[in-house]
Amino acid sequence: MRTSIACLFLLPGLLLFLLQGCDSGAWDAKQLVSNLQNISIDEPPSSIRIKSSNASVNLRVDRAVPAGSIEAEYWMEHDSIAEASDLLRASTLTPDMRDGRLYLEPLLQEGVSVHLEIILPDIQGVFIEVENGSVEVSGATGETDVVIANGSVKVLGQEGTVTARLQNGSITVADATDALELHTENGTITIEHAVSDIRARTANGSITVDVQADMSPSLQVFATNGSIECQVGPAFTGEIDLVCDNGSVQVTDQPGIVTAEVVDDEGNRHLVIGAGYNKSTLWSGNGSVQFTITSGPPPGDPDG
To answer: Vertex 272, ends 271 and 274: CA angle to 5°?
Structure first.
């Protein structure tokens, strides 16, 4: 385990970086002070569970590494380097491995936040609960489930399902191979290269969905205050309702595969595409709905 203390503060026109011992007194303004803890994980866990109050997490799978590692950087703003150093030294992380599952719950002193940089050779389940902070997960398999009160979530290259529930913050998911369940009260939702069923909902914010061109998942997408943009390819089939309470609905059918369309008095549309059985809904309370079918690569094309 390696630990170091450093503080960083700004004065007009001047950037100063102080190592521990350069000053132990107080300053007129607050400085950013940090402490670093490095942890080696000799036995790769089957799953990981993280719970913290003020934390940002960057978890990355690297199958080339033989074992895992955790870098925990504790930081705070304080007007006394000495007092901040004491608070940071008292903040720590002790990994708890039980039945192959890794549990992380940092011990944080008042005013201290932590950034966790985690590298694992593989992981079959990721479960993260944070009150305030951001989370990024890359390359995990199985299930990723994230709960945040205030912050953002980004999940990349997930070989499995993704569930994210936020109070305030944005959600981004790209290249997931299974179903998505995404909810935020205040924030945008962005989904790229989706291949499986989607349930996405935001109270305040826009939603953007990009479905892989050779796939036809079920889409249940709802934005109370915000617009929806959804793009699918020529393999998409089924019935879809496009509904706006206050706004417009636009449809672009590049390959001309819509076989039936019903438009009501408010301009909402019900489309039948091909002979598929999927039922989908794009609904916006206040905002527009834009649904685009691209001519894209043909069904089954690996570049879809």
So the answer is: 145
